[in-house]
Write a structure and sequence with these properties.
rod-shaped, about 140 residues, alpha+beta, 3 helices, 4 strands, 4-stranded antiparallel sheet
Length: about 140
């Protein structure tokens, strides 16, 4: 006669629990970084209208020092009291340099990281370089 299997042994159950624990320890930090990166795209996207405004300003004036928020076709700066939204705490433009700041707190916490777009004029066109603490964290390019 064959004996029917009675169930899993204690060691088998402990191995399964250990494997699940290891996978959770690896996956949780990756998931948290992914959610921050996804939320930070809102900050990056908030700079797009300012980027277009700076490009138009540069084409019409020929000088980046004339391209500040609220002048020469560049949208007015946004801040916590003037229409900020979602993950964006503020967006400012000074001499064509666009600085967007994420909110602190919330879920996920974006820690007030920044996204800075710096234009460089070359041959009548602008090229953009991204920097800031959000780029350093790997949340934007």
């Amino acid at each position: 006669m064959k004996r029917a299997q009675q169930g899993f042994t204690l060691i088998e159950l402990m191995i399964v629990v250990a494997i699940i624990g290891i996978l959770a320890a690896i996956a949780l930090p990756s998931y948290q970084n992914y959610t921050k990166k996804a939320k930070f795209t809102e900050v990056v996207q908030a700079t797009q209208s300012f980027k277009i405004g700076v490009e138009e300003c540069f084409q019409s004036t020929g000088n980046l020092s004339n391209c500040d928020a609220g002048t020469n076709g560049v949208p007015a700066a946004i801040g916590s009291g003037s229409g900020a939204y979602g993950a964006v705490a503020s967006v400012t433009v000074v001499d064509g340099v666009i600085t967007a700041t994420a909110v602190s707190g919330g879920s996920p916490n974006l820690e007030g990281r920044t996204y800075i777009l710096t234009p460089t004029a070359a041959g009548g066109t602008l090229t953009w370089a991204a920097s800031g603490t959000g780029v350093d964290a790997g949340w934007a390019k």
